[in-house]
């Protein structure tokens, strides 16, 4: 059974990764396109201020419910779980109203001549969060039963429709300002929820659902319902949700910390926020489309294979061996991806920005921002996998203890962000994030080491690449840095091509060394 879950989880991770590639490539192209039609200030307000409102409402309303309701097996009282998940909607309305008022009345309002229709944008992005939460019970049902194709189709359709509408309106009515992005955001969430709704209406009661012994048989069962002589929700899940809620509140501050500092403390103007966000999106391409799907999917795997709150001795030893092996190979995989990006990102940041956005991005702080982000990706890579294992195994008391650690960390992170930004500008945000991730990695690796200490498994050895590979990485870093000084980026296209060719040769050498030294990892990637 554990082997089946691993196979399904790997498929879910790979399809989610492909999905994130599509999202990021479209966003990537969309930003490059809109840069030529709209101001940096407008992009800064949409991508930092309004997107922060939407992500905060959605995160606070549903993240804790997702974690609690995806823990344990898919065999449970789904009526009570669905009842619990519907509480995300009133919670979303509450946060939308509170935060919407803050965004409208307490924060600096952009100049209407530069960024028109700000108030309409706040209302639309708050409303879009509530609409998305209407599909939350369906999303959790689909994720718990590993409906890979549904997720791919629903999210692809919604992103593509959003991009088509944005491009059309930007070309035809650029003067509409924030109306463009407001309509596109509302279309995105509406299509997403409709896809899930239509699928479940067709799926429930079908022969396929009967064959899979799907726990919900009627569409009516997807709505909140009372059961006689029983509680409305599963109180164990509800208590776990509350623990995760306290943690998710802090995690959101840590995840979006720099945007909160930008939004509430005005350390950067809207134009600089726009440049920072574009570089941030560019730098986070790999983090979002490879690391996040791995983290989300393997959280489900570890939560299903190992039982939360039990010591390693009390688990099935075959499952422990499989989980330890998968964790070791996942750590090795993300570490090598992160190292590759860090090494090659340093020498190719300026060239990438010059091709992508012209001199507006490649001059000033843009290249330094992207170089620092390349290092940050390495921290993100390792933290994603170590935390995904830790959160899947922690019992309620450990989650509560970790909340205190996160609280202290949140405060330190915000202080460091504020001071580093004053000293180093927008680069300070990324340096503060590296510090934050370093502390979180230290906590998670300590937990993993402690968890496996009474067994013969040592999954943290996945964080040690072979000496030969480290040597090749070091040589590649030196050669590409030297190549950048000589050939990039103001010496014409021939010099640029030589610089790109040098990087391609170094990358090829690195990959060949990887194939020769990391045979166990290569087999895992191919087989799963």
From TrEMBL:
Transmembrane region(s): 42-61, 82-106, 118-140, 152-173, 179-204, 329-353, 373-395, 402-420, 463-487, 493-516
Pathway: Protein modification; protein glycosylation
Location (main, coarse): endoplasmic reticulum
InterPro entries attached to this UniProt entry: RFT1 (IPR007594)
Keywords: Endoplasmic reticulum, Membrane, Transmembrane, Transmembrane helix
CC per GO annotation: endoplasmic reticulum membrane
Localization: Endoplasmic reticulum membrane
GO BP term (any one): dolichol-linked oligosaccharide biosynthetic process
Membrane topology listed for this record: Multi-pass membrane protein
Keyword Zinc attributed: no
Family: Belongs to the RFT1 family.
Functional note: Intramembrane glycolipid transporter that operates in the biosynthetic pathway of dolichol-linked oligosaccharides, the glycan precursors employed in protein asparagine (N)-glycosylation. The sequential addition of sugars to dolichol pyrophosphate produces dolichol-linked oligosaccharides containing fourteen sugars, including two GlcNAcs, nine mannoses and three glucoses. Once assembled, the oligosaccharide is transferred from the lipid to nascent proteins by oligosaccharyltransferases.
Protein name: Protein RFT1 homolog
């Amino acid at each position: 059974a554990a082997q089946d879950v691993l196979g399904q989880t790997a498929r879910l991770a790979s399809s989610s990764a492909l999905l994130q590639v599509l999202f990021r490539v479209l966003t990537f192209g969309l930003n490059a396109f809109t840069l030529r039609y709209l101001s940096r200030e407008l992009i800064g307000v949409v991508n930092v201020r309004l997107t922060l409102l939407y992500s905060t409402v959605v995160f606070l309303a549903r993240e804790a419910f997702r974690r609690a309701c995806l823990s344990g097996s898919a065999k449970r009282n789904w009526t009570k779980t669905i009842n619990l998940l519907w509480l995300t909607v009133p919670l979303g309305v509450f946060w939308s109203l509170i935060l919407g008022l803050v965004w409208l009345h307490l924060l600096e309002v952009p100049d209407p001549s530069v960024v028109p229709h700000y108030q309409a944008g706040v209302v639309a992005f708050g409303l879009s969060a509530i609409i998305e939460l209407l599909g939350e019970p369906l999303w959790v049902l689909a994720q718990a039963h590993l409906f890979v194709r549904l997720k791919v189709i629903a999210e692809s359709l919604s992103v593509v429709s959003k991009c088509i509408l944005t491009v059309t309106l930007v070309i035809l009515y650029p003067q509409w300002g924030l109306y463009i992005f407001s309509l596109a955001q509302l279309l995105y969430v509406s299509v997403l929820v409709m896809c899930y709704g239509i699928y479940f209406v067709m799926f429930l009661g079908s022969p396929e659902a009967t064959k899979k012994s799907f726990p919900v048989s009627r569409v009516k069962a997807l709505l909140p319902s009372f059961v006689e002589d029983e509680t409305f929700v599963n109180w164990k899940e509800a208590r776990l949700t509350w623990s995760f809620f306290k943690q998710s509140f802090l995690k959101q501050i840590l995840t979006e910390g720099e945007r909160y500092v930008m939004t509430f403390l005005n350390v950067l103007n809207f134009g600089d926020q726009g440049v920072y966000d574009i570089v941030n999106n560019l730098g986070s391409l790999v983090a979002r489309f490879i690391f996040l799907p791995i983290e989300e999917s393997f959280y489900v795997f570890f939560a299903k294979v190992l039982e939360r709150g039990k010591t390693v001795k009390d688990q099935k030893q075959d499952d422990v061996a499989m989980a330890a092996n998968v964790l070791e190979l996942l750590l090795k995989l993300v570490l090598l991806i992160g190292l590759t990006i860090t090494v090659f990102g340093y020498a190719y940041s300026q060239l990438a920005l010059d091709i992508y956005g012209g001199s507006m991005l490649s001059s000033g702080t843009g290249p330094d921002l992207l170089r620092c982000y390349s290092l940050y990706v390495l921290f993100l890579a390792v933290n994603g996998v170590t935390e995904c294992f830790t959160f899947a195994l922690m019992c309620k008391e450990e989650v509560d203890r970790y909340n205190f650690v996160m609280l202290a960390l949140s405060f330190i992170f915000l202080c460091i962000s504020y001071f580093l930004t004053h000293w180093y500008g927008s680069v300070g945000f990324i340096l503060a994030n590296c510090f934050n991730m370093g502390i979180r990695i230290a906590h998670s690796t300590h937990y993993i080491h402690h968890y496996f200490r009474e067994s013969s498994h040592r999954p943290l050895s996945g964080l040690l690449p072979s000496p030969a590979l480290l040597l090749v990485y070091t040589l590649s870093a030196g050669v590409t840095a030297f190549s950048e000084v000589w050939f990039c980026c103001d010496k014409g296209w021939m010099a640029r091509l030589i610089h790109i060719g040098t990087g391609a040769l170094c990358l090829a050498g690195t990959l060949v060394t990887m194939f020769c030294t990391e045979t166990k990892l290569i087999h895992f990637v191919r087989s799963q």
